[in-house]
Amino acid sequence: MDCCTTPANSAVTVKRECPSCGEKGKNVQLITLESLLKESALEVIEPENPFVFCFNPKCSIVYFSGNHSQTFVENDLKVPVFQKNQGADVPVCYCFDWTRERLIKAVGSDKKPADQIKAHVQAGRCGCEVNNPQGGCCLGNVNSFVRSL
């Protein structure tokens, strides 16, 4: 058997549709939740379950387990969630503290936030899996936000 394939009988069925809004979410690693959930949520998390991030800004759920037995909302997290919270002080880039407000101020100046972030990423300085609630790189969010201005 190839090392990159899993036997059919060991596959875990993960529901990626949010139990609240029905939109398809993105799988996140357990380390993301362990880093960002408050104590009260960590005390009840079922770590054997896979978890999914819900991107829908109108949905209160941030994370849900793949079997829908657990859900976590923004209040369960230590940080505000870019997709769920429209505040100016909410990070768009969590590793390097590029908030909406900071990005707005940088637009039109000689600062190029996406280029700065990309340079840090290439230098191995980011920790998106433990800093960003969506568990992955924020550059797409940064670029989308800047384009929307």
How is the biggest beta sheet arranged?
4 strands, antiparallel
Distance between the termini: 51 Å
Question: Strand content of the residues, in percent?
Answer: 5-15%
Roughly how much helix do the residues carry, as a percent range?
25-40%
Q: Might you state the CATH topology name of the largest domain? A: N-terminal domain of TfIIb
Structural class: alpha+beta
Summed up, the helix count is: 6
> SSE string, helix = H, strand = E?
EHHEEEEEHHHH
Number of domains: 2
- Radius of gyration based on Cα positions: 17 Å
Counting DSSP E segments of at least 2 residues, the number of strands comes to 6
Return the CATH architecture of the largest domain.
Answer: Single Sheet
Q: Give the spatial strand order of the biggest sheet.
A: 1-2-3-4
pLDDT under 50 segments (min length 5)? 1-11
Shape: globular
Mean pLDDT: 90
CATH class of the largest domain: Mainly Beta
Key attributes of the depicted protein:
149 residues, alpha+beta, N-terminal domain of TfIIb, 2 domains, 4-stranded antiparallel β-sheet, 13% strand
Descriptive notes:
With 149 residues, this protein is α+β, with helices and mostly antiparallel strands. It folds into two domains: 14-76, N-terminal domain of TfIIb (Single Sheet); 91-148, no CATH class. Helices cover 28% and strands 13% of the residues. Strands 1-2-3-4 form a four-stranded antiparallel beta sheet. It is globular. The termini are far apart.
